[in-house]
Design a protein that fits this description.
By secondary structure, the chain is mainly beta. Helices cover 0% and strands 49% of the residues. Strands 1, 2, 17, 18, 19, 20, 21, 22, 23 and 24 form a 10-stranded mixed beta sheet that branches.
Length: 302
Amino acid sequence: MLYVIKKEAVDKKMGRIEILKFSETVSRDVYNPTAPFVDRGTTYIAARTESRDIETDSQVVFFKEKADSVWCPDTNLPTFTLQDPFIARVKGELVFGGVRFPVENRSWRTDFYRGEDISSLGKFSEGPLTMKDIRLVELPNGKIGVFTRPMGEIGGRGTIGYMTIDSLNSLVNTDLMSADLLRGQFTEEQWGGVNAVYVLNDRELGVLGHFAHFSEDGEGNILKHYYAMVFKFNYLTREASPIKIIAKRNDFPPGESKRSPELDDVVLSGGFVFQDDGNVKLYAGLSDAQVGKMVMRDPFLE
């Protein structure tokens, strides 16, 4: 069962919903970001940058915010030939990764890096062919939770899986295709994945992800529909709450699209920043061309 956020629950006052500005990215779109995070005292967003008409020149760049609320690249930091970045803090280390494309037969796989900070990141593992949306979280019991997204014979168009590992070192030799699948979240015509994970208490994780499906517009165009969604996950019993959609593309201001009309209705979750007032800031990619920010009530409190 899906719960679609009510329109009146989305506060569109100035500053609460906006499209972010990025500088020094000449002729390149910036989208599919992480949430802002602090590294060595500086706040960064990692985001995918790409030419409008090319998908094979993707670079992940680390941006820092200037005084005028414009994000600019930190040229002292490395860039990575990856798509759709993610970050996590695990066992005192910064874990970073993204999707490498193309690889064998124009497929893709997820690469993982680790280090004390951005400057020291080094590759230590990679996921199976065709698997995106692999996310790690340090659990209260000392283990590491791993969310996966197999597709094909196992997983259909894309289904969420879960398993635990003992350490980052053990990720290298772990068969991620063997993760337990979370049943009942998607029909055969739908798919989704995990974008970020948060520890809520000693049993529950808050999962931020995306829910997607195709449609046709009557003029021969195949349209993609991606929505930001959340669910709670009890990592001890491996039970998941129903998916709840929290944001759609038309909740944000109008903007550009990498390919219209195919990608006009796309929101890809990046991450949350939790606030002391019970709200969160959602950062997300919009239509494969921009980054949006939305302030909303913490969906894990409901």
